[in-house]
Design goal:
single chain; about 200 residues; alpha/beta; 6-stranded mixed sheet; 7 helices
Length: about 200
């Protein structure tokens, strides 16, 4: 399989206008400090705000960087959005991060380096502070982890984080087997990867 880039980074976009531009600038700054060749693929899932215009502005602003975009004709869900980006990607390593940078962009090099030294996948793990404001989220997260372990027998720390990187050659067969195009895709793709024996 020919790989044009070391890394393809997919950014799934849906009504991201509030944080879009600052997040893209941050991501580019992180990637430009590495010595990798990279591309960024922005996949818009039929946003209803100004995200599409902002995507086009970024592409015009950085004509020498490898930034491209796909636009869904109708909303299809996060899993389908990321999958479409992965299928378009030409990098040896493919990954996606949430564009609000809930997991900061400076962790990207750690994930890529983990794959470069042998892992098939690298996944972010969110740690929530247990305070009053975060209590509901913390309880929901713990409840989902318990349910996931009981039903799917998967023991990963955080299947739902919007921060996942893979060897492209390994993840493509998994994508073909995924069935859910929405929020459960995050869990499904990791369950299938683990069942295939990926590290």
């Amino acid at each position: 399989m020919h790989h044009r880039y070391d890394l393809s980074l997919i950014l799934a976009c849906y009504n991201e206008a509030e944080t879009f531009t600052s997040s893209i600038e941050t991501i580019l700054a992180v990637l430009d400090k590495t010595d990798w060749s990279y591309e960024i693929i922005l996949v818009d899932d039929k946003s209803t705000d100004t995200t599409v215009q902002l995507i086009k502005q970024i592409i015009r602003k950085y004509p020498r960087k490898h930034v491209s975009a796909l636009y869904h004709a109708h909303n299809q869900g996060r899993g389908k959005t990321v999958t479409d980006g992965f299928l378009q990607a030409q990098g040896r390593i493919v990954g996606f991060i949430d564009i609000d940078l809930e997991i900061p962009a400076w962790y990207i090099p750690r994930a890529v380096e983990a794959i470069q030294v042998g892992a098939d996948a690298a996944i972010g793990w969110r740690i929530y502070d247990l305070d009053f404001k975060g209590l509901v989220r913390w309880l929901a997260s713990k409840g989902y982890i318990w349910l996931r372990r009981q039903v799917l027998s998967i023991n990963l720390k955080d299947t739902e984080s919007g921060f996942k990187f893979f060897k492209r050659a390994k993840i493509l067969p998994v994508l073909k087997a995924c069935r859910d195009p929405h929020w459960f895709w995050d869990t499904e793709v990791l369950v299938l990867a683990q069942r295939n024996g990926y590290s």
